[in-house]
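Box 3.1 A note on notation
Throughout this textbook, protein chains are presented in two layers. The first layer is the amino acid sequence; the second is a token string describing backbone geometry. Keep the layers aligned when reading.
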Amino acid sequence: MDIGEIISDSVKYPISDWKKLLTLGILFLLSFLLIPVFLAIGYAFRALKATIAGFDELPEFDEWGEMFIDGVKVFVVTIAYMIIPLIIIFAGIFTGPYVYGPTLTDVPLLLQAGGSIKIVGFIVAIIFGLLLTIAIAHMAFNDGQLGAAFRINEILDVIADIGWADYIIWYIVVIIVFWIIGSIASSVIGLISHSIGFRASLVGSAVGYILLSLFVYPYLSLFYFRALGLRYAYQ
């Protein structure tokens, strides 16, 4: 399956069942309560598992306890992989002032010092992000076993089977499409809020949040995990 087929399929996948898409949206809408956000992540992960298993339909909303646990697992794996890049990035943000102190007069040098560390952090984040993406898919392939996400040799073998060049191209294209869809959707929602006189108001912000939560966030989540599942399944 080439990248064009993966993107085409993934774009249509979330809207194959509007009822389930909206149900996922309600979970995102209630994510400030914390538990629903893990349920939402767990459902997206379930869609990933279903895709790898060869199913084309959106999965059912059932076995909520398992769905919640899966969401927590994805969160834990994400934190575990990204904690080092985040530490480096934050070190870059705070290193300048703490290293040079208040007597520093060469501001460009200070910015350069912190900026270099942040650049390193972003590079490390990209590398770890490549591993994290397949790690989550590998966990899904192994029926949600947490340990499977940390079998680095197996994860590297999967990437090798896909082909590093093909994988990186897929990674970049998915990010670009993800960003384009998100940007267009956000702009449309902004126009809707503006057209009914809600621009720059508390009510307008609430309307925007509701529309984003109900439609955009669930769509993008399912698009991403569907694309990942297809990439993993068709190595």
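The CA atoms of residues 111 and 158 lie 40 Å apart. Residues 3-233 form one domain.
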